[in-house]
Amino acid sequence: MRGTIVILSLLLATACKQKETTNPKQVASVEAKTNEQEAVDLEVYDFEGFKAFLNKEDDKTYVINFWATWCAPCVKELPYFEELNANYKDKNLEVILVSLDFPSMYDTKLKPFISAKRLKSKVIALNDPSENKWINQVDSSWSGSIPATIIYNKNERKFFERSFTYETLEQEVKHLK
């Protein structure tokens, strides 16, 4: 009986070992993902540094979306912001995705998320624990819940504390342009 257990253990160990080494594509894929994740360059700002993004007075229209990887409605609408960015990148529009993820999540959750979703819009992290001070500076009507979006240009500014579809997002941008 003891001999049978030893032989079974050796067979199982050998079988597991073979599974790990017989798929070089899987190993290469994991390495590529790791390299992509390391390549994500995340800009992190406190609110004082971030304020410059809220008040640009050039000829662009800015779409600033406040979101987090742990917010399901935020994640659901991100493809719409990416589509808007792709469709309007040559039309004087800039999409900025402002992550409110916790700093402890930047390397373990946020950067891998950015890499996996292949986000092309500018992504920055807002790291300022004094949200009770800066939320009203973003917009006096903001309760602090996310998703939240500001769409503005030098002539007009709109604030939204809700989710978007691509159609409603594009409609708001067109009204402002």
Summarize the structure in words.
Strands 1-4-3-2-5-6 form a six-stranded mixed sheet. It has 177 residues and is of the alpha/beta class. Helices cover 50% and strands 18% of the residues. The protein is built from seven helices and six strands.
Low-confidence stretches: 1-38
The oligomeric state of the chains shown is: single chain
Can you give the helix content as a percent range?
Answer: 40-55%
Strand order of the largest sheet: 1-4-3-2-5-6
Overall structural class, as computed from helix and strand content, comes to alpha/beta
Overall residue-averaged pLDDT value: 83
Can you write the helix and strand succession as a string? HHEHEHEHEHEEH
Q: Given the C-alpha coordinates, what overall shape results?
A: globular
Biggest sheet details: 6 strands, mixed
Rg, alpha carbons: 22 Å
Number of beta strands: 6
Tally of individual helices: 7
Quote the beta fraction. Answer: 15-25%
End-to-end Cα distance = 80 Å
